[in-house]
Amino acid sequence: MVQHYSRSLRFRFLAALGGVLLIALMSLVVLSRWVIFPALHKEERAVVTQELKKIERALQISQQNLLAQARDWAIWDDTYEFVQGNYPGYTDTNFSQQMFEEMGYQLMAFFNAEGGVHFLAGINPATGRYHTCYSTERECRWMAGLVRTMQASIKEDPEQGKSELYAGSPPLIVASNPIFRTDESGPLQGWLFQVRPMDNAWLALIEDYTGLETTLSVVNSSDSNDIAITISGNTIFAQRYLSTYPLNEQLALETQLNRTSYLASLETFRYVLLWTACLMLLVIVLVLLLLERIILKPLKILTRFTQQASDDLEGAHSLLRRGDEIGILARAFQKQFKRQQQLNAELIELSTHDPLTGLPNRRLFDQRLQEVVNIALASGQPLTVMMIDIDHFKLFNDHYGHPEGDVCLQRVAQAMHNVASAHGFFIARTGGEEFSAMLPATSATQAVEKSQALSHAIDQLQHPHQVSPVASYVTVSIGISQLDIEGAMTPSGLMTTADQALYAAKAAGRHCVKVYTPSLANAVFSSHNTPP
């Protein structure tokens, strides 16, 4: 049963479509894991990178602004005169705590042509107090570290004209430029450094400009400036390390972003995957239903139709009316089956009927006789048989020839068939010119009447037989036997006694009817054993 089911089209279709569904789902999983999700992560990283670069651009703009301001101060003729000692009122006119606070400066440092300190002004980040000095002593001691770093930068790159990040707490933007006249004529007279702290106020400006929360921290790290991304729940942290001067420390620029957009996209994609899987499953179910209705069910009916070969089979008529391949196949099978039935009928006819006369042959007669004898013995009803022989048929053939003999046999057989049909008994050709009949539920007396009807019908033919010693036309002799006679209780015994009665009819001059009796059997036996 399992093997039969595994070979059915329904199972094979289901297995094939199930395999397709499994492959499709696996493909979706693989596509999601190795293509879609990485693409979403890449897109999210690109967004994070873009946002972080926005902060970097704001930082670069701040550096460029400070550098532009430092250049304006450095190539101002008043500054040129000031560093040469020719403008004593320069500091009082241009420097104040209010100016530093408004410009966001922490320190301005002027150096002479030899790199020495010429003038310092700034706001102490620890106390918030404004100081001006000509050296890094007393109240300007807090500037000492920055001044030494600036002097080292001058020695490394006297050209200056740049903006750099200095490590500190908070970190600093430092812009520097050589001091020249406004038309940049004359010799170099020194250098100007401007310092802007990247404190909370500066970060607030950056956040207002970019709309992103920003933090800065100084770290001892040698990592490259690639973006580092860390994900924690719904928040993503992005960090980039920026080089500072000197290069023994780095500045970590960090922001945090909400992953709502990414998670929404991810959730949407998951819903799409789920709906895609459901849609595929629905399509496969619909395909199976269509296959069941259009192909599998008709094929099942066609299979039963071919197995049972019956036009009355439920659904067979609908198959025959179909215009598709199944209908063509059903009609072809029906045509073939009817042809086979016809051939079988012809074969049965040939095997059970005499081809010359069309009457049943000896084979069919013996089969029927066995059945009728069994019924008669079981029911107790009478059964009578006849053996019929054409008188002197050999003389007829010798005189008229075999073709005429065949015509004679056909006419005699048709006449006897008509009588048998009219009186309801079975007759067959069981020899060359010999015929046999069985009469169920018929006594010997009734059989004699029917035998006389047979003989009379043949006489009515008046078929010429000029060489017959009996008559000038064809006649028959008939022997009758009944089942209940001793020795005639079997089909063979019944036919043997009928043959003996036929022999008695021939011995009596032919063209007559004899009924078997024991005394008749003794007379026949004596005539067989009497010397000629």
From TrEMBL:
Could you tell me which CDD domains the record lists for this protein? Answer: GGDEF
Asked whether the UniProt record includes Transmembrane helix among its keywords, one would answer yes
Which Gene Ontology molecular function entries are recorded, alphabetically? diguanylate cyclase activity
User: What biological process terms from GO does the record include?
Assistant: cell adhesion involved in single-species biofilm formation; negative regulation of bacterial-type flagellum-dependent cell motility
Q: Which residues cross the membrane?
A: 271-291
**EC?**
2.7.7.65
What residues does the GGDEF domain cover? Answer: 381-518
Which PROSITE patterns does the entry mention? Answer: GGDEF (PS50887)
**By its UniProt entry, which Pfam families does this protein fall under?**
CHASE4 (PF05228), GGDEF (PF00990)
Keyword Nuclease set for record: no
InterPro entries reported in the protein's UniProt record: CHASE4 (IPR007892), Diguanylate_Cyclase (IPR050469), GGDEF_dom (IPR000160), Nucleotide_cyclase (IPR029787), Rev_trsase/Diguanyl_cyclase (IPR043128)
Cofactors named for this entry: Mg(2+)
Quote the SUPFAM superfamilies the UniProt record gives: Nucleotide cyclase
Alphabetical keyword list: Membrane, Transmembrane, Transmembrane helix
Q: Which reaction does it catalyse?
A: 2 GTP = 3',3'-c-di-GMP + 2 diphosphate
Q: Name one GO cellular component term.
A: plasma membrane
The protein's matches in NCBIfam families, at most eight in alphabetical order, are given as: GGDEF
Protein name (Swiss-Prot/TrEMBL): diguanylate cyclase
